[in-house]
Design a protein that fits this description.
This protein is of the alpha+beta class. It is built from ten helices and 15 strands. The strands form four sheets. It has a five-stranded antiparallel beta sheet with strand order 1-2-3-4-5, with helices on one face. A five-stranded mixed beta sheet has the order 12-11-13-14-15, with helices on both faces. The chain has a three-stranded antiparallel beta sheet with strand order 8-9-10, with no helix packed on it. Helix 5 links the parallel strand 11 and strand 12.
Length: 320
């Protein structure tokens, strides 16, 4: 067996093998999915070559792994419920990434996870930002924001005439937008029109990249071609969307107290966390890009990534 299979079987509770090939035991997932504790051996694990699958015949929770895929959020939850400690779960995440680099990837998403977002229109009169007033374009240049996907509108509703419009797409379809004011005295700073659970920037990720950078803000993600959770908490659906990329995930929290909550989420979802050595007044990714440039900022993030929970908890104190 490969290391992923070995870890699962080492953690299984008392079990028995059925003639069909399933290893059956009391399911470990039911109490976390709205059901009572299973006492009828309705959890099962089966292997197929180097792959492994889990299915609960009570609450219908299922997940699995095969070479070439990342270890998904659901599979990590299974490992946690089986009693596999955090250090071992993190080791298996990177073992799966190592295996992925050695073989041809055929599929790297959870087969049973799908999500759709409703289509939403752009603000009235939205046009390419290169046709916007010079003040709007200068704002983008000063913030080092690429302008190729940005829009502007002369509409007075929501003071759109003083905002940069950032379209949100999902699988190539327009599902909303946010409009950021160029005048920090204007409230609200962001005028939002999108559904919950969305992750900005997923459509823009390079399929050949080895890692994806998770940011809090959409401007941060724009600056560095990362993905944004549009806040300082990442929920389970957003984690699964990000895991669908099948890459090493590196979180860069803002350097403030709210960033602590996002570090907690990163530990929960098995992501790496980066603590770049930026100057004290550089509080987030966009500020770093403005100060140091995109390439240096990217390198500083990758060089400062941490995978050890102990090291992450030690380094996070500087943000407290």
């Amino acid at each position: 067996m490969n290391p992923i299979q070995e870890a699962v079987f080492a953690a299984l509770p008392k079990h028995k093998r059925a003639p069909s090939g399933w290893y059956n035991f009391h399911a470990v997932c039911c109490q976390y999915n709205g059901e009572g504790i299973d006492k009828r051996h309705r959890g099962g694990v089966i292997t197929d070559g180097d792959s492994i699958s889990y299915h609960c015949f009570n609450c219908s929770f299922k997940t699995g792994w095969k070479p070439g895929r990342h270890i998904s959020y659901k599979f990590r939850k299974l490992l946690e419920w089986l009693g596999v400690n955090e250090a071992e779960r993190q080791r298996l995440v990177f073992e799966a990434l190592r295996i992925k680099e050695t073989i041809e990837v055929t599929e790297d998403v959870e087969q049973d996870f799908t999500i759709e977002f409703k289509l939403r229109p752009l603000p009235d009169n939205a046009i390419n930002i290169l046709e916007a007033p010079l003040k709007i374009q200068n704002y983008c240049d000063e913030r080092c924001i690429p302008k190729d996907t940005l829009l502007w509108s002369n509409s007075r509703a929501g003071r759109m005439y003083d905002r940069v419009i950032i379209p949100f797409t999902w699988q190539g379809k327009l599902i909303g937008n946010t409009a950021r004011t160029t005048d920090n005295t204007t409230k609200p700073k962001y005028f939002n029109n999108y559904e919950p659970n969305y992750v900005y920037g997923i459509d823009n990720q390079n399929p050949n990249a080895k890692f994806a950078i998770v940011c809090e803000g959409v401007i941060d993600a724009l600056s560095i071609n990362g993905v944004s959770i549009l806040g300082n908490r990442a929920n389970e659906i957003q984690a699964q969307i990000i895991d669908m990329l099948g890459k090493e995930i590196i979180l860069v929290p803002d350097r403030d107290k709210p960033g602590q909550r996002l570090i907690d989420d990163a530990l929960e979802y098995g992501w790496s966390v980066s603590f770049p050595e930026w100057e004290n007044n550089v509080k987030d990714i966009n500020a770093a890009v403005v100060r140091y440039g995109k390439l240096f900022t990217l390198k500083s993030i990758v060089d400062a990534k941490q995978t050890s929970q102990l090291k992450i908890n030690l380094l996070r104190k500087q943000y407290d």
